[in-house]
Specification:
alpha/beta, 20% strand, DHBP synthase, 7 helices, 210 residues
Length: 210
């Protein structure tokens, strides 16, 4: 397989076409590069797991283009999740919520929840809108290795193994997103990251437990 590289500023529609055909595309976000596919395409998600070497019992998060898209992949969304989305999206906060039936089992590793995030990166948001689907998007590294902050690092990992790399320059933050579970009973920290817990607690109107 020849991995197509889309240079900074070039038309990214070929990347959206790869997504539509079940392909895998590496895309920059403000945190790190993500390895993306159509998050509602079960076969594409299974291929992503295979390419990344990700254990099937480890779920992946979905990128969405805007906060209103939460309702397409999640249900029974607590009010605190809407407050957090209003405050931090687009941005480096992943919220784990009850998944809807539209989300394939492999995304959630067979569980009842799914992580969702709206990234603060113009290239990623453009691709999400062009693809018109949530993107399954773990970091663009083989499992166990460092997360890449630029396209060259992605190519060192996956050249010839994925369909396309969208070179959007170096990621501005370089630290993975903060991950919280938002439940009726409150907010739980699942992974520390770019957003401080005190800011999450203030926006949610509730404390954050570990």
């Amino acid at each position: 397989m020849d991995t197509v590289v889309i240079a900074p500023g070039d038309d990214i529609s070929p990347a959206a076409e790869f997504i539509a055909r079940g392909g895998i595309v590496a895309v920059p976000t403000e945190t790190v590069y993500g390895l993306c596919c159509d998050g509602l395409n079960r076969e594409a998600v299974l291929r992503l797991f295979e390419v990344k070497g990700r254990p099937p019992d480890k779920p992946v998060s979905l990128l969405i283009a805007e906060k209103d898209a939460m309702s397409a992949v999640c249900r029974d969304i607590p009010d605190a999740a809407f407050r957090l989305a209003e405050t931090f999206w687009p941005g480096p906060l992943t919220m784990v919520l009850t998944r809807s039936r539209s989300v394939p089992d492999p995304v959630a590793a067979g569980g009842c929840t799914v992580g969702v995030r709206c990234p603060d990166n113009a290239v990623a948001l453009r691709l999400l809108r062009m693809a018109a689907t949530p993107l399954a998007a773990p970091s663009a590294n083989p499992s166990g290795l460092g997360s890449p902050r630029d396209a060259d690092a992605v190519l060192r990992y996956f050249e010839g193994k994925i369909d396309c790399v969208v070179d959007g320059g170096r990621c501005s933050i370089g630290v993975e997103s903060t991950v919280v579970a938002v439940e009726r009973g409150g907010v739980r920290l699942l992974r520390a990251g770019a957003i401080a817990l005190r800011d999450i607690a203030e926006a949610a109107g509730a404390g954050v437990s570990a």
